[in-house]
Amino acid sequence: KHYPIVTVSLGDSATWGVRDDDGTAHRCVVESGDITLLAGPTRMCEHSIERIEPAEMFSPLRVRGRISVTIRVAGEVRS
User: Fold this and answer.
1) Helices and strands, number each (H, E), in the chain
2) Among residues 7, 9, 8, 12, which one has the least CA distance to residue 57?
C-alpha cells in the first residue's frame, strides 16, 4: 500500500512541478501555508520545486527562503 505524501510550504512562493506517467508536466505556484497532496495514482509521480520567488504574501520566516515540511511513509509498512 502506498500512503500519501503531504507537504506544507512556508516562506517564499515556489513553482511546483509534477510529471505524470506519460511525461506530461503540470505546474502550479505554492504560497506560504499551502498544502500539496500526492495520493492514489499521483503518489509515485516525479515532483519537484522548480523555482523559488520572493513571497508576495506575509512570510513567517525572518529571512528570504522557503521551508517545506513533508510527511510520508517510507519503507515497508507492516499491519
Assistant:
1) 0, 6
2) 12
pLDDT digits (tens, 9 = 90+) for 47-68: 999 999 887 666 777 788 899 9
CA-to-CA dists, residue 36 to 17, 39, 62, 68, angstroms = 11, 10, 23, 10
Enter the DSSP assignment of 70. Answer: E
SS3 annotation, 3-40: CCEEEEEEECEEEEEEECCCCCEEEEEECCCCEEEECH
For residues 72-78, give the mean pLDDT.
80
Classify residue 43 by its DSSP letter.
T
Place of cell 500519501: 4
What does pLDDT average to over the chain?
88
Length of the chain in residues, anyone? 79
pLDDT higher than 70, residue 79: no
